[in-house]
Amino acid sequence: MKLLETYQLGKITLKNRVVMAPMTRCRAINNIPNDLMKEYYAQRAGAGLIIAEGIAPSPNALGYARIPGIFNQDQIQGWKKITEAVHEQGSRIFAQFMHTGRASHPDNMPDDAVVLAPSAVYHKGAMWTDQHGNQPFPLAKEMTADDIQNTIEEFVQAAKNAITSGFDGVEIHAGTGFLIDEFINPHTNLRTDEYGGSLEGRMKFALEVTQKIANAIGKEKVGIRISPNGIYNDMIPFEGTDEAFLYLATSLKDMGIAYLHMVDHEAMGAPHVSSTLKEKVKNAFGGTYIASGGFNGETAEHAINNEHGDLVAFGRPFIANPDLVERIRDGKDFAISDPQTHYSATEVGFTDYPTLEKVTA
User: Model pTM greater than 0.85?
Assistant: First the structure.
């Protein structure tokens, strides 16, 4: 299978073209990566590339309960154990930076942290907090010019911390209704300064974060994830979506970063993303393109063979299938995970899924 052949990603060699997509799992007690997480990632290191769950680059970036950070020494040391365990299995691992923006709640943040967004636009619905259960989203503070520059610098420092932690690179989360996506979307970006208004203005934050991280750690160690037509986190698809993401892909091509990771959330209820847009974005970017969204082994192989993607990311299948790559190789069915345990705090539904070999035994 071509899906299981090696692939050269910049200066690193991946043992196959299977990517473990980033997934929030909420096991980082006190926002510190731990030994339970180390076991989880080591179990799934059959993937050529693991993209770690969304990691907060700063206290202000913390949104969900028990998500890991990478802004203090305890967190850096915790991630070192995880990257070492993954590397011992011959896999590579990137850190995904997830600044949740308005998708946050003070109960999930330190006392001195602030819920920030490009504009003060309410997020409908509620967020889970361990202290008080589901709580309505607060109205985020509209970022000042200083807030924007400080946040960019927090991303850059987090990238340096990631390299210190042993990550092979970083992925910038610019989708799923989090901070960078909030700048891109005109429904959540009502600014009239240089970071809003026009298409170029709304893309400015994403591009500055990417360029400055590339300058700090090397462009070959930087990827980015986008999700056109996403509706997660109370986002609304906007007119001019195709134009916006083609502009972004073209700008990213000029930077020469490692990859563009485009996720199609149609399988999770989002509006259809046309194959035409996917192909145009892939061609406009010109570099390694990770296809993501609803794949199985057969459709992933088809995507690789037909040049719809250079790598293919699997998300939810990796939850219940630590041996996902072996199951793909042998043509075996995937186990199904229990959604009730996706975001709990224990090993249940996290590290206790058996391999097919153990099931058979």
Answer: yes
